[in-house]
Amino acid sequence: MPRLTSLSGRRALVTGASSGLGRALALRVAREGARVALVARRAEALAALASEIRGGGGDALVLPCDVSDRSQVEASAERVQSAWGGVDLLVNNAGYGHHRPFLRWDVEDMERMMQVNFLGGLYWTKALLPGMVSRGEGWVVFVSSVVGRIGNPDETAYVASKFAQAGLAEALSIEVEDRGVHVLTVFPGAIRTPFFDEEALARMPSAAKSQMVEPEDLVGAILRALARGRRELTWPRALAGAYVVKALLPGFFRWGVKRAALPAPDPVDEAESAATEGE
Ligand SMILES: NC(=O)c1ccc[n+]([C@@H]2O[C@H](COP(=O)([O-])OP(=O)(O)OC[C@H]3O[C@@H](n4cnc5c(N)ncnc54)[C@H](OP(=O)(O)O)[C@@H]3O)[C@@H](O)[C@H]2O)c1
């Protein structure tokens, strides 16, 4: 199985590079000697990051792109392939989420979440995987979430998008491993990034806040996982214990999920559910 033990001279592409985990990852891979293509919608944030990378002696390509738009992904993939001849490491990281009761969640946003979090990674992988397969070498990382394995309440559409991403990654990993392409799926717990706005942070119990992981620590764990040829990474590692409990003690697991779940910002009360039913 191919292990990515050195990034020197490699060509990387990181989606969601304008903020949080993607930004930290792009900076780190550039520092380790890879050229890095930066993908997100906010062109100015990408340009500022590219300047920072170039200032440190690295090489960066700015690719403003909405990952949910297939034609934009295909055009951006063309640009990076004609500039660099291909990409060795693709990190499907762009995504967003929020807490919202299912009954209050508008379908348009649910569709959009699936398009960004799931189809965005699928489009990028469709565009860049053929080059990896023809070179007989490549790495694809999908940044899912622990809720890509655990159905947290009040996050239904986000959970669905992250389960979909994890399913795609698992199947693809088996399909392409004999052709030299390694797929890693990352299942992070809460990371300290702008993903959580002020309002979400205010609702979060202080114990949960204190357990949030720093993006740089997760970046280090991702690079170590790639160097060791690991196919899955849950971070922090202790969270993986929940998968065992889920498999062995499903009733206890559901009780625990209910207790640990972050309260929804705007819960639906019984009177409102009854009113909705009557409409
Ligand atoms: N933070 C957490 O606790 C946590 C936990 C588990 C998993 N994750 C996952 O980790 C990944 C990174 O999240 P983060 O915590 O770093 O959040 P973040 O700081 O909010 O960054 C999200 C990134 O995704 C990009 N993005 C969003 N929609 C996009 C679109 N339509 N097209 C292109 N880029 C888009 C954003 O860029 P633009 O706005 O410039 O487009 C931004 O760069 C996400 O997939 C998230 O689901 C996060």
Set out the fold topology.
Blueprint: E1 11-15, H1 20-31, E2 35-40, H2 43-55, E3 60-64, H3 70-84, E4 89-92, H4 107-135, E5 138-143, H5 156-176, E6 181-188, H6 198-203, H7 206-210, H8 215-228, E7 232-235, H9 241-248, H10 250-260, H11 270-278
The structure holds NADP nicotinamide-adenine-dinucleotide phosphate (NAP).
* Contiguous helical run count: 11
The poorly predicted ranges are none
Helicity range: 40-55%
Largest sheet: 7 strands, parallel
The helix-and-strand class reads: alpha/beta
Overall tally of structural domains: 1
How would you sum up the global shape? globular
Indicate the mean pLDDT. Answer: 94
Give your account of this protein's structure.
This protein is α/β, with parallel strands linked by helices and 279 residues long. The chain has a single domain (11-278), classed as NAD(P)-binding Rossmann-like Domain (Rossmann fold), CATH 3.40.50. It has 11 helices and 7 strands. The protein has helices spanning 20-31, 43-55, 70-84, 107-135, 156-176, 198-203, 206-210, 215-228, 241-248, 250-260, 270-278; strands at 11-15, 35-40, 60-64, 89-92, 138-143, 181-188, 232-235. Strands 3-2-1-4-5-6-7 form a 7-stranded parallel beta sheet, with helices on both faces. Strand 1 (11-15), helix 1 (20-31) and strand 2 form a beta-alpha-beta unit. Helix 1 crosses helix 8 (215-228), helix 3 (70-84) packs parallel to helix 4 (107-135) and helix 4 packs parallel to helix 5 (156-176). The protein is globular and about 60 Å long. The model has no long low-confidence stretch (mean pLDDT 94). The structure holds NADP nicotinamide-adenine-dinucleotide phosphate.
